[in-house]
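Sat 14:20. Reprocessing the chain from the morning session after the first attempt stalled halfway. Input below, unchanged.
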Amino acid sequence: MFSVSNSLIMQSESKEPFLKTNLKTILILFISIVFVSLVLFKDLFFKSTYLLKSFGELSVDPEIAFTNNKPTFLEFYAEWCEVCKEMAPQVSAFKNEFEKDINFVFLNVDNQKWGNYIEKFDVNGIPQVNLFDQKGNLISTFIGKQDEIKLRDSIKNLENEEQPYEELINAEFSIIQENRNIEVSPRSHG
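Finished this time. Tokens:
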């Protein structure tokens, strides 16, 4: 009897290291898969967020933009805005394509520094893109996710004289959240 119970105890003890080894192997495999996925799909996961964070640094100062006799693309955005993240690659491509002829101004709605612009242009939902001709006249307002072709055509038409005002609102937009007292760096546009 004694040898049977000893044998059962020994079998039980021998299974524990086996289970611990399997658990470690599964955990290492899982972590490896997550890591490889992040490396392979980093652009998909992080590109839009990075672009949004860089918009403030890439921005022309709004005071300069409205006085240098060039058309202006003004976008109100926030880093937490999912629709803004979705549109960031498209907006970045527009900036790269048109920045020689058009001012690109990006104002983060969480930055109290831009409160007067948010109020002046009645920003309630983001992203909001306002397009101005070279005289500073508001030509178009786009709120929410926009069709790339429509937005591109509107940007190309900024140099045409005498355009009627146009406002396009898409149901996919983010409502501006109450300001969370984010500190403002004097060197930051964002």
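The chain has two domains: 1-40, 45-175.
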